[in-house]
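hey can u run this one w/ iron/sulfur cluster bound, need the structure tokens asap thx
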Amino acid sequence: MTSASLENRASALNKQLEGLDLAGRLALVARLEGKAVFTTSLGIEDQVITAAIGSDKLGIEVSTLETGRLFNETVALIDETEETYGILIKRFYPEQDDIDAFAAKYGMNGFYDSVEARHACCGARKVKPLARALEGASFWITGLRRGQSGNRADTPFAEADLDRGLIKINPLADWDIETIRAHVAAEGIPINPLHARGYPSIGCEPCTRAIKPGEPERAGRWWWENDEKRECGLHVPDAAASAIPQSTPLASSLVR
Ligand code: SF4
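ok here u go:
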């Protein structure tokens, strides 16, 4: 599919999805021709989507990026979620060669020292495994919401991802955090216990901290960086790709 046709298709889908509820949005994507993959971080938004996919037995693959630096609570929630909904969550791990290349150049925890090093770590532990998770996919479902940060304020329901040659679907784009919490409580959806301890957004353990009342939802992610740079490269891939050590195998094609 050409870039123009991908964009046209995404635009049409965006309009279709707008008028539907969450179940309707996911069911529509599941019916489309082409493989649909949902990547979950096990955060509260993603648990809402996983619950909908599992409860309705939709033909959508559920995958997660097991970075090797996750909180124990997050790892435990993967198993609990599989049991609750009778689904398989496919784990995608970083490659040891990539971790070794990062550690040799920056040190294992070198991501605190520069934005470049942090993007390189996210590239090795997240962006490259994501490329494997999305192999063969026509649709990539995410839990992005407009209210999560300034970077995400314009998140559409469907958008063309020209780098990856697929359409990204954001079925919770218009949900606010209060609606998410109410839905989780009403449906008894299992969530990460860290949310109740001040972590609205949960990523890798060394790069996530609890936030104070009134702080933005993602203020605890890479808190030592400026706000406009706080993404991991999954949704703004160029930054992560450019920082991955050149000794990393396949470094030039990580986000394709
Ligand atoms: S969030 Fe932190 S530990 Fe995880 S991949 Fe990114 S830099 Fe590395």
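Confidence is low (pLDDT under 50) at residues 246-256. anyway lmk if its weird
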